[in-house]
Amino acid sequence: MSFRDLPALNAFLNTLTSIFLVTGFVSIRRKQITAHKVCMVSALVCSIVFLTSYLTYHYVAGATPFPGVGWIRPAYFGLLISHTILAAIVPPLAVVTAMRAFQGAFDRHRRIARWTLPIWLYVSVTGVLVYWLLYHVYPPV
User: Sign (positive/negative) of CA torsion 107, 108, 109, 112?
Assistant: First the structure.
């Protein structure tokens, strides 16, 4: 694996995170508590590995300019801005949500998880969309 493979790895980790989040949500709705725990811890681990890889890549490579023109440009930046703002709040939300579960404060866990899950899922899915737009639909020149 080379340094240039990190964006693809990051998209893969975001995809895995999304799958774990949805599966964890379905599991808890079915009262499959062990499966829910495994999925949510897996989502947390994938996100931590993602964040490490993402920060490493951008520390070395810097920003990748978006070459698209026309209507896609404001659409891309709208997506990127919403993704970035919400991505900044996912780590504290995820940590607080997980800590409440680990402490057994399930009422408080549920209250914050109702916000954490959709925001975290949005960030994971839009991260993959940003990757595809930036590296496949409109690849850098």
Answer: positive
Instruction: Give the model confidence (pLDDT) of 124-138 as tens digits.
Output: 999 999 999 999 999
Eight-state DSSP code of residue 135: I
Q: Quick check: 66 and 73 in contact, CB under 8 A?
A: yes
Domain boundaries, the chain: 3-137
3 state SS of 137? helix
User: What is the Cα–Cα distance from 57 to 96, expressed in whole angstroms?
Assistant: 27
Cβ atoms 38, 21 nearer than 8 A: no
Cβ-count burial 70-89 (b if 16+ within 10 Å, e if not): eeeeeebeeebeebeebbee
Q: What is the DSSP string of 1-21?
A: --GGGHHHHHHHHHHHHHHHH
Q: What is the pLDDT of residues 28-84, one digit of tens each?
A: 999 999 999 999 999 999 999 999 999 999 999 999 999 999 999 999 999 999 999
